[in-house]
Design brief:
The protein is flat and about 70 Å long. By secondary structure, the chain is of the alpha+beta class. The protein has three domains: 2-152 and 416-445, Porin chaperone SurA, peptide-binding domain (Triger factor/SurA peptide-binding fold); 173-187 and 296-397, Chitinase A, domain 3; 190-293, Chitinase A, domain 3, CATH 3.10.50. The protein has helices spanning 2-10, 15-19, 41-55, 61-83, 91-109, 112-119, 123-150, 155-163, 190-208, 214-221, 244-252, 298-314, 318-325, 329-332, 355-361, 400-428, 437-445; strands at residues 30-34, 37-40, 172-173, 176-184, 233-238, 262-264, 267-277, 280-288, 348-349, 373-376, 382-393, 396-397, 433-435. The strands form four sheets. The chain has a four-stranded antiparallel beta sheet with strand order 9-4-11-10, with helices on both faces. Strands 5-8-7-6 form a four-stranded antiparallel beta sheet, sandwiched between helices. A three-stranded antiparallel beta sheet has the order 2-1-13.
């Protein structure tokens, strides 16, 4: 954890100096010892810095102690997990988790080269230094999840939790809907496809001739928002995580060669594979999207009308038809059910949906299926769909009768936090925890903010 947090600290330069006026006096110190493990002040500072930056709130000593508490909790959990011989974290799992996190960091800072420049080490060296820190983190998480799975809540506990709130303080929910849909994308016109291929070919010619670098052309022309700023670079990625059309080219193209333009559902690409190791590839690509405004929707509309007629005339389950015929993979796999991509909730706020959805839903009664209509999907793509209104809950004050599932989740979340905190405090009693430096000073000022073991003398 120590070295991993150092990387995070380096990614937010200047933030800690702005937050902590004492930086000029003390750059680092040991602030806690948990068993045989040290926690440095820089670790706590880095952990807290990310939180402050994300939440956009000012530094406080109490928040610093809370960050220290979380780091102590992780080390206590890891220590107990090591004592539990039934918990084993394989090297493969550690390697996978570490690679995924490094991929995220590389995307944030602009690629592998930039990350190596920031830290002054090669990716191989970073992996070697961070591997055991990740193992500790995974041990702690596994041990904690075992406890979480044991915590349940009964209907009577849900009711008791809800009834503690005065009726006039309960929030009013807006109109909520549950929806299922079947999606078809209009096929781009041949003219639009040809234009995209011509642009990609011209870009490739400029790169191959040496007039421009791949990275420069990606920054100028690529329409992939996730990689354009990094020169089209996407670090180690599994072939299985790529769409089949892209994976087929990436698997066979010689290392360092620039591919001919090829098409995927996202548009037209050119690709350069930098490194291939097993099923992992490191590559740069440039995406030119096909102009959707030139697409002909008639085929998609006719297809959806036929699907709707089959459902209504032959009583075929909507979910079955969605799995067979919807081109939106995420909802098709769930029988067409639409969920909030941020929360996974099925209840969607009607007023928050795109106007194209609202116009379609306004014509439906619960259980009805719309005719094909144009829509801006939740991922921003334009398509046509038929929609079934599965549920409509008008604006109302929260109640157990209409919102039991939502209330149950909130009550369970509160119970889990309470039980976990009590459990963690008990676990701390069997691990020697000593505070020092800034931690000791703040713990004496805020004696109720931190729990140490009875085994240690502070």
């Amino acid at each position: 954890m120590r070295r991993f947090l150092t990387i995070l600290l380096l990614l937010v330069p200047g933030l800690l100096r702005a937050q902590s006026p004492a930086d000029d006096r003390v750059l680092d110190e040991i602030v806690a010892v948990v068993g045989n493990e040290l926690i440095l002040r820089s670790e706590v500072d880095a952990f807290l810095a990310g939180y402050l930056q994300q939440q956009r709130i000012p530094y406080s000593d109490e928040l610093w102690l809370e960050a220290l508490n979380q780091l102590i909790d992780q080390k206590v959990l890891a220590e107990h997990a090591r004592r539990d011989t039934t918990i084993q974290i394989s090297d493969d799992r550690v390697e996978q988790a570490l690679q995924e996190r490094l991929n995220q960091l590389m995307q944030q800072v602009g690629g592998q080269t930039r990350l190596e420049e920031i830290y002054g080490k090669t990716l191989t060296q970073l992996k070697a230094e961070l591997r055991e820190d990740f193992r500790e983190q995974m041990l702690a998480e596994t041990f904690r999840n075992r406890k979480l799975q044991q915590i349940r809540i009964t209907p009577s506990e849900v009711r008791a939790w809800f009834e503690q709130f005065p009726t006039d303080s309960l929030p009013t929910l807006p109109d909520l809907v549950r929806l299922s849909h079947i999606v078809r994308y209009p096929r781009p016109s041949e003219k639009a496809r040809q234009e995209a291929f011509e642009i990609a070919s011209a870009i490739r010619d400029s790169i191959v001739s040496g007039r421009s670098s791949f990275e420069d052309m990606a920054r100028r022309f690529s329409e992939d928002p996730g990689s354009a700023a990094a020169g089209g670079h996407i670090p180690d990625t599994r072939l299985a995580d790529l769409v089949p059309e892209f994976a087929a080219v990436a698997a066979r193209i010689p290392i360092g060669e620039i591919s001919q333009p090829f098409e995927t559902p996202f548009g037209v690409h050119i690709l350069r594979v930098n490194r291939r190791q097993g099923d992992l590839i490191d590559f740069n690509h440039i995406l030119i999207r096909i102009d959707e405004s030139q697409a002909d929707p008639s085929e998609a509309i006719a297809y959806l009308e036929a699907v709707r007629d089959s459902i209504l005339q032959y009583n075929i389950p909507f979910g079955l038809m969605a799995r067979r015929h919807s081109e939106e993979e995420a909802t098709a796999a769930q029988g067409g059910r639409v969920v909030d991509p941020r929360t996974g909730e099925r209840d969607l706020v009607l007023s928050a949906l795109d106007p194209t959805w609202q116009r379609t839903i306004d014509t439906l009664e619960v259980g009805e299926i719309s005719h094909p209509a144009e829509a801006v999907l939740l991922d921003g793509r334009r398509a046509y769909h038929i929609v079934r209104l599965d549920r409509f809950v008008p604006s109302h004050r929260v109640s157990l009768e209409t919102d039991y599932a939502r209330i149950e989740q909130l009550a369970l979340q509160e119970k889990r936090q309470r039980v976990l905190r009590q459990w963690l405090n008990e676990l701390r009693q069997s691990v020697v925890i000593r505070l020092a430096g800034k931690a000791r000073e703040l713990a004496e000022r805020y004696p109720d903010k931190i729990v140490t073991s009875t085994l240690a003398q502070r």
